[in-house]
Amino acid sequence: MGATSFHIEAEGYTASEAYAHLVDRAKFEHGADYYNGTISTCDRLDFRGINTKVFTKTELKKAKKVMEAEDNGKKRVATCIDCGVVSYTLRLVSRQATHKEPPKYLVKYIVHGSYLNDEEFNTKKEADEYLKKSLLKSGQTYGFVYKKKILVSGTERVTDMKITEKVYKSRPHPKNMKDKILLEKHHYLFYGWAAC
Known about the structure:
Elements: E1 3-12, H1 15-30, E2 44-47, H2 57-69, E3 77-98, E4 104-113, E5 119-121, H3 124-138, E6 143-153, E7 159-168, E8 180-195
Parallel strand pairs: 2-3
Antiparallel strand pairs: 1-8, 3-7, 3-8, 4-5, 4-6
C-alpha cells in the first residue's frame, strides 16, 4: 500500500488530546478504514516536548522548517511539534448548594425470582408468605426477598459543585490556587505519512 503526507494544525490542552480529536474527526469524515489516507492511520504519536513560549507565526514557521527538514516525518507516525501557548484557562470548582432536607425513606420488601415480577410488600412476613406460595405454584426452585429503601421526601444529595472556566490571553497570577487549576492551551503542528 502507498502513503500520503499530511500536516495539520490543532489546539488543545495536551498533544494527546489534540491528536485524539484529529483522529476522531478523520474517522468521522473518511471512515475507519486502515488505509484512508488520514492521520487516523498512524500507529503512534511522536511528541517533541513542551514549548512554554507564547504562540506566534514565527514559532509555527520554525516547526514547519523542522517538518520540511525531516521530509514530513515517518510513515504511520504522527509527529507533533508544540508551537506555543495560545491561551490560559483558569478552572475553578465552587460549591453551588448544600442540601439540608434530610431524606425520609419507606422500607419495602421485594420478592424476586425467575418468574416473579418483583412484587412489593410492606412487611417481611407478607413477602415471605407470597414467595412460599409462588414457589409452590410455579414449580420454581429458588427465589428471595430483599429489603429496599424508597425515598419518599427530602433528598439524598448533600452537595452540588460546579466547574467554571475563565480564559486569558496572557498568564494570570491568582493569589489563591485552592480549588483552582491553571491549564495552558497549546497550538500544535502534526505531520507524517498516512497509509492509503
